[in-house]
Structure to design on (355 residues):
C-alpha cells in the first residue's frame, strides 16, 4: 500500500491589508487589545464581489498543481474545506473545478464542513483514497472569505478582529518511498458544544437559535411563521446572522485538545515531541499556539506562526502556514512535520508527515 505525499503546495492571500488600527475606525477596539489577546497585527480581506472563497482557492490550487508538475486536467478528485462557501449550495468543490477550467475531466468533488480542522480532515480523507488506490492526484483546498460574513459593528468585535481571508492548497499523490509522506492522521469531534462557536443563521432549524444567548427572546413570529422563514428581520436586527463565539470556553477546550491529539499521533508512530522538525498549528490565536508549544516543550524554531500577519483563516490557516514554512526552507526533505487543528464543532485532528 502506498503512502500519500504532498507533491505540490501553494497559497494565496488577497492584497488588501487591514491593520488593527483600520478596525479601530469602525468599531470600539484597540490595537493593544487585539495584539495582547490574539497576537494579530493585521489580516487580509478579499476584493468585494471580485474575489471569493472559490477564486482564492483556485489561485492557491494553481500553484500547488504547477509545483506537483502535473496538468490540471490530471486532478482526479477535489476536496474543498471551507466554512465560508460562495453559495449555500452547491459547494466550492464544483465551483473551483469550473474556475480552474477542468470541468471536462468530470473529477469527483467533495466539500467538507469542519471549520478550523477542515484541512486536517481533508488530508485524512485524501490519504484513505490514495492508500486504497482509488485516486492518484487529489487536490485539497482550504479557503475562507470571512470578510463577507462578519459583524463590523462593536457588537461583533470579539469575533471579527480575529478572522482574515486566504487560501491554501496541496496536490496529493501516492509514494512508494518507504517511511515518506503522511504517517498517520487522527480525527475527533464532540458535538455537545456545537453552538459555542457557530454561525447559526440562516439555517434549517427554523428559528434564531443562538444557544449562547440566555435572555428570553420575543420572537415576534408564531412557530408556524418561523418554520417558513430562513432569514427574518429579527435575526438581522439582532446580529444573529453572524458568527458567535464563547471565546474563553473555546480557548480552554483548544489548549486541552491540541496537545492530546498531537500526543496521540506521536504514540501511534512511536515518535517523540523532540522528533518534530516543524509543528504547524491551526492559527487560531497566538496565545493558544504558545500554550501548546510550551506544553509540548517545543522550541521557537520547531513552530510556525503567521497569525500575526494573516489573522485566523480557519480551513486555510494550516496550508498557508505549511506553504510559508516550506517556501522559507523551514520544511525540508526528510523532516517530520506535525499538523494539528481544533475548532468549531468541536472538531479537531492531527497529522504527522515525513516530508
Ligand atoms: N476589542 C476590545 N475589547 C473587546 C474586544 C475587542 N475586539 N472583544 C471583546 N472585548 C471586550 C469584551 O467586551 C469584554 O469587556 P467587558 O469585560 O467590559 O465585558 C472584555 O473585552 C473581555 O472579553 P472576553 O471575551 O472575556 O475576552 P478574552 O480575554 O476571553 O479574549 C478572545 C477574547 C481573544 C476571543 C479569547 O477568549 C480567545 O482567544 N478565545 C479563544 C478563541 C479563539 O481563538 N477563537 C479563534 C477562532 S476558533 C478557532 O480557530 C479554534
Amino acid at each position: 500500500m502506498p503512502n500519500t505525499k504532498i507533491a505540490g503546495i501553494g497559497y494565496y492571500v488577497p492584497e488588501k491589508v487591514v491593520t488593527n488600527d483600520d478596525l479601530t475606525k469602525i468599531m470600539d477596539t484597540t490595537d493593544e487589545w487585539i495584539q495582547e489577546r490574539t497576537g494579530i497585527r493585521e489580516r487580509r480581506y478579499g476584493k468585494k464581489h471580485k474575489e471569493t472563497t472559490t477564486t482564492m482557492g483556485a489561485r492557491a490550487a494553481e500553484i500547488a498543481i504547477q509545483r506537483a508538475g502535473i496538468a490540471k486536467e490530471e486532478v482526479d478528485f477535489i476536496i474543498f474545506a471551507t466554512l465560508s462557501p460562495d453559495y449555500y449550495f452547491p459547494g466550492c468543490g464544483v465551483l473551483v473545478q469550473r474556475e480552474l477550467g477542468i470541468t471536462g475531466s468530470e473529477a469527483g468533488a467533495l466539500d467538507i464542513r469542519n471549520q478550523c480542522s477542515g484541512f486536517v480532515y481533508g488530508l485524512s480523507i485524501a490519504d484513505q483514497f490514495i492508500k486504497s488506490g482509488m485516486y492518484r492526484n487529489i487536490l485539497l483546498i482550504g479557503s475562507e472569505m470571512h470578510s463577507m460574513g462578519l459583524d463590523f459593528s462593536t457588537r461583533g468585535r470579539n469575533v471579527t478582529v480575529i478572522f482574515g481571508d486566504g487560501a491554501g492548497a496541496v496536490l496529493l499523490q501516492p509514494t512508494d518511498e518507504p517511511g515518506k509522506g503522511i504517517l498517520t492522521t487522527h480525527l475527533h469531534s464532540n458535538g455537545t458544544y456545537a453552538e459555542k462557536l457557530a454561525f447559526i443563521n440562516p439555517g434549517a432549524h427554523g428559528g434564531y437559535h443562538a444557544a449562547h444567548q440566555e435572555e428570553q427572546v420575543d420572537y415576534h413570529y408564531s412557530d408556524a411563521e418561523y418554520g417558513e422563514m430562513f432569514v427574518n428581520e429579527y435575526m438581522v436586527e439582532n446580529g444573529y446572522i453572524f458568527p458567535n463565539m464563547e471565546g474563553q470556553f473555546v480557548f480552554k477546550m483548544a489548549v486541552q485538545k491540541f496537545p492530546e491529539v498531537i500526543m496521540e499521533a506521536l504514540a501511534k508512530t512511536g515518535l517523540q515531541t523532540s522528533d518534530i522538525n516543524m509543528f504547524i498549528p491551526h492559527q487560531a490565536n497566538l496565545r493558544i499556539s504558545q500554550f501548546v508549544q510550551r506544553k509540548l516543550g517545543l522550541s521557537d524554531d520547531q513552530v510556525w506562526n503567521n497569525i500575526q500577519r494573516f489573522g485566523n483563516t480557519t480551513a486555510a490557516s494550516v496550508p498557508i502556514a505549511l506553504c510559508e514554512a516550506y517556501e522559507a526552507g523551514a520544511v525540508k526533505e526528510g523532516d517530520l512535520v506535525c499538523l494539528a487543528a481544533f475548532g468549531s464543532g468541536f472538531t479537531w485532528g492531527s497529522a504527522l508527515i515525513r516530508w
In short: The first helix runs from residue 20 to 24. The radius of gyration is 20 Å.
